[in-house]
Write a structure and sequence with these properties.
The chain is 44% helix and 17% strand. With 254 residues, the chain is α/β, with parallel strands linked by helices. The protein binds phosphoenolpyruvate.
Length: 254
């Protein structure tokens, strides 16, 4: 597939996989994806598996991501993880503002923007999630919500930082539900988000930013979604927990 930007496909393992299970999955992915260079491929295990997965992917093209990070560099923040700790395991990407964290941990756009600054401060790349709920879509609020989340979560980044930021459009109603946005819905939202980034930063930055789609991506719908001009990859939950399905999403996207 001829794309303007290199695709980035990331697996968000969420609170799944013991260390042994994580290593099993990575072994399978390495076999399935040995020769793939066309796509940036990222796995995001839970914190407890980062160390072992980091070692296991050293001889592969897989890159490591974390699922969250604290906005402070060090200190009395019980249960939290700082950038420097992620860097010890060669983490390259950090997912921020996933809808589950927005919902369960009440993360705000303001907090996400602070975390994004800390991620860039450590020379890591954030994957910043935005997306509307079903009620918001049905109420005709999709663009208003996306605008609020994009403006708030990306506030304060420099143009250079923005160009290295990945945005994930994840309609909440499509996450883990088996319902995928239609290609038209995905393309429309992605183009809208790119337009917002153009206004906040500039057109050159907007053209460089990669925008992933997330929400029930599967091997069967990956090709069509990735064929949309403003869809530059995928953030995959459920289907990233098995080597075959995650690998097939990647292969079908090329
Ligand atoms: C996600 O949680 O980021 C996600 C996209 O999940 P799923 O692929 O399972 O819908």
């Amino acid at each position: 597939m001829n794309k303007e930007r290199k695709l980035i496909i990331a697996g968000n393992w969420k609170m799944n996989k013991t260390v042994a299970e994580a290593l099993d999955l990575v072994r399978g992915l390495k076999l399935e994806l040995a020769n793939i260079k066309e796509v940036d491929m990222v796995v995001c295990p839970p914190f407890t598996a980062l160390s072992e997965v980091s070692k296991a992917i050293l001889d592969s093209s897989l890159r490591l991501g974390a699922q969250n990070m604290n906005e402070n560099n060090v200190g009395a923040y019980t249960g939290e993880i700082a950038a420097v700790m992620l860097k010890e395991f060669s983490v390259r990407y950090v997912i921020l503002g996933h809808s589950e964290r927005r919902q369960y941990q009440k993360e705000s756009d303001e907090l996400i923007s602070k975390k994004a600054a800390a991620v860039h401060g450590a020379s890591l790349k954030p994957i910043i999630c935005v997306g509307e709920t079903l009620a918001e879509r049905e109420g005709g609020q999709t663009n208003t919500i996306l605008q609020k989340q994009v403006n708030g979560s990306l506030a304060g980044l420099s143009k250079e930082q923005m160009a290295e930021t990945v945005v994930a459009y994840e309609p909440v109603w499509a996450i883990g539900t088996g319902k995928t946005a239609t290609t038209a819905q995905a393309q429309e939202a992605h183009a809208f988000i790119r337009g917002l980034i153009g206004k906040m930063f500039d057109e050159t930055v907007a053209r460089r930013v990669r925008i992933q789609y997330g929400g029930s991506v599967k091997p069967s719908n990956a090709r069509e979604l990735m064929s949309q001009p403003d869809v530059d990859g995928a953030l995959v939950g459920g289907a990233s927990l098995e080597a075959r399905s995650f690998a097939d999403i990647i292969k079908n996207s090329i």
